[in-house]
Amino acid sequence: MSELTGKLLIASPSLQDEHFRRSVVLVCQHDEDGCMGLIVNRPKPLTVHEVLHDLDISECVPEHERSRLHQQHVYDGGPVDVIRGFILHDAWHVYESTMMVSDELHLTASRDILEAIGRGEGPEHFLMMLGYAGWGGGQLEHELLQNDWLIAPASPRILFQEKAEQRWEFGIRCMGIDPAHLSDQFGHA
After folding, report:
1. What are phi and psi for residue 71, nearest 5 degrees?
2. Any idea what DSSP says for residue 28?
3. Model confidence at 185: pLDDT above 60
4. pTM as predicted
């Protein structure tokens, strides 16, 4: 694993790219060939229950889980392969295609996790994503040198307990920085 795998990239105020402005990205994999991450603070107007219904899985959802899945939004994980789905979840479960992001976080992209969620037997904490963010070899490193991103530790609290619209500011505060003191112009040493 790279030193960035399992970390959060928090868009600096100077980053104005429409796909990443004020975004928080969990780095899921990073090596010399590039980087794959998921934007974790952009809910879509689509719920987990609607996705399960579209996949003919929702009939299995126990009554006590239906309201939770009706309220839980799917996230815009990034601008690459926007119909591909991922489940970011706590590390208590392993499924057919589970990848370890950190000791506390796993990423799964197989149908078996969706079926487990539909039965009410899935992970307690999870985010469903469509699409991902990707960088080619050296591209993210260049953006870091341009001060486009701040690097922060990831935690289940930021991902699963903080409201999506507050994750950008909360991530910056976790670094000991007051977001009001950040300028939209960064200098270079």
Report:
1. -95, -20
2. E
3. no
4. 0.91
